[in-house]
Amino acid sequence: MIAGLKKLVVASSIAAALLAGATSTAQAAEEQFFMLPSYRVGPYGANGQSWYGGFIDYLNYVNMKGGIDGVQATWEECETEYNNAKGVECYERMKSKAQKAPGPIHVMSTGISYALVDKVAADKLPLAMMGYGLTSAVDGSVFPWSFPLVTTYQMQASAIVKFLKDKNGGSLAGKKIVFLYHDSAYGKEPILALEAESRLNKYTLVQIPVAHPGNEQGAQWQRIRQEQPDYVIMWGWGVMNMTALKTAQKMGFPREKMIGSWWAGSEEDTVPAGDAAKGYMSATWNVAGKGVPLIADIEKTVYGAGKGNLKDTSKIGTILYNRGVSAAVLSVEAIRAAQAKYGKAKAMGPEQVRWGLENLNLTEARLKALGATGLLPEVKTSCDNHEGSGKVKMQQWDGAKWVPLTDWIEGNKALIHPLFKADAAKYAKEKGITPRDCSKEK
Amino acid sequence: MQFFFEVLIGGLLSGIMYSLVALGFVLIFKASGVLNFAQGAMVYFAALSVVGCMEKGAPLWLALILAFAIMTLLGIATEKFVLRKMVNQTPIALFMATIGLSFFIEGLAPMLWGNEVRPLDIGIVDEPIPYILDSYNMVVSSFDLFAAGVAVALVAGLALFFQYTRVGRALRAVADDHQAALSIGIPLQHIWALVWAVAGFVALVAGMLWGSRNGVQYALTFTALKALPVLILGGFTSVPGAIVGGLIIGASEKLAEIYIPPVLAEVFGGNFGGIENWFPYVLALLFLLVRPEGLFGERHIDRV
Q1: Class of residue B184 by CB neighbours under 10 A (exposed 0-12, middle 13-18, buried 19+)
Q2: Residues of A in contact with B273 (CB under 8 A)
Q3: How confident is the model at residue A25 (pLDDT cuts 50, 70, 90)?
Q4: Which of A41, A207, A220 sits opposite B110 (nearest CB)?
Q5: Most buried of A161, A342, B125, B303 (most Cβ within 10 A)?
Q6: Structural domain range at position A94
């Protein structure tokens, strides 16, 4: 009996000592936890591989260079398969881990981000939607925890219209544009902007939805052939994109008159389409290639040390890989911005990271210092502008690679931003939200 | 009217592509009475195996042979580890087993070959045939005609196989009654392994054509969804039924996608589309009410 008690006491003491050690270690190493509900399998797995590969490679790169001002980035992935229910499940599973010092959450899915907008507001966790998601969240007075950073679907659609207008000598009057879109939340987002632009620029807009997954588009393209449009703007994703390119080829529609959204403009869309993709254009908010010094340095540093996230290293420098890196750059810069205000070399809490996202100022000079000149546009956010840029470039597939066609183009802010405001106000009314007074936010 | 015929012909040619997937379902159902939910996954696995072998340096012809060998092995393994244990189980139990098999294959395929989207070039151009375009202002591609030719050849071959070979007759006997077939000395296990291998071959052909058109990727598994209404219409046990069902579904869904949305928009306002995804199922449902066994299916009569 006494021997048993002794064993229990010794065991308890060892356990207590180990626990104390573990706690002190945790306190010593400041960590910023990035929750990553990602997708690497399923219908869009190939896209997720590149994007999350780039994101994680940059976090590793930052850690290898000393962390975010000494704070180590940690992360955990949870497979969503681009499925809304699974995305929410992943969020619920990981949110307690993110309560102390979260990185911005990236779900890379408009559907999942729709499902999380209310939840993150309730849980007070920052949600980043870089190039996707709920566009009215640009209005930070209603959506303090959601950030559709860099640019939104609607500003992108407006920029595409501007590009086409410039191509046509400054006028689209009398032209016909078909909007071929994935029949989902993502595909429907820019309709409002395209309709507003069509009223302003006097072109005819024909909307043609494609049901998920979009692997058969014979009827849609027969209708396009009948309509004989001047251009086709395509809001596709995954298999829909290459099916559209192949069917356009089959129908004899020139690819030089097709322009896609940034989710329809990656190597994953064009390489499998082969010759059918040559001449096709798309918008993008980041450039491809290893010409950007940061991308080359990530390859050298991270993959040189055997810490790279991608098995297939040929994806380094692709559009989606570079987009993942760009998203990570913005996330880390938001934490740095928060550290500058709330304390250097410290992990940042949810409210502090939210502040950092809302006060980002990624200037050309800072991009240059990061080795990321030209990778993405300048970004400056505020309480009433969670987008921070609204600029995109147009690029064209030359049969082997994406070639930039333009410099950064900004959509018609005066036309589009009031649409966000109106939509956000409607949302606030529906949900009983009292908008913040942005003039009092610093 | 010219546009109507163009849509109709386009739909018929799309329907042929659905028929190719439906054929795989029919083969397994004929031999074992099982609706093989894994057929779409098999299409994906077969096409992925071809491009996987080509990436390792095999020429197309060798990659096709290797992929067929892989599909045969998969068929044998399915018989040995799944079906053999389930002889005389209820159809729903066998159906559930194929659902499990489907998820297994969908996970196994990218593990073996990776999940990147790959192009597949079988050397057939998918562009409008200039003569038809110039003479009739209709778009028909050489790829569509090639797919139709392949489907006709497959159906003819399979019909002859079932009708005139010893193995084919044994397959039909097994489909009628597992136990009765066993009692007269038909080796059930061999027959099942064989039919799964043949279904694997059909999946390979379908995978080559679908993969060549849309790229080899996970979305190939969705082709199965297009085949189900084809089966209901054509009958689960009829090889020619799969073709006729495919033609009807293909043509009707395309016509519905073109002509119904404007009517709905006029009545209700707004923008309608995506009808081709659900319209075939509604058609199949209506057909079930009138002729549950399908156009060419065997009428099921129970003697009491």
Answers
A1: exposed
A2: 183, 207-211, 220
A3: very low
A4: A41
A5: A161
A6: 30-152+287-391+413-440
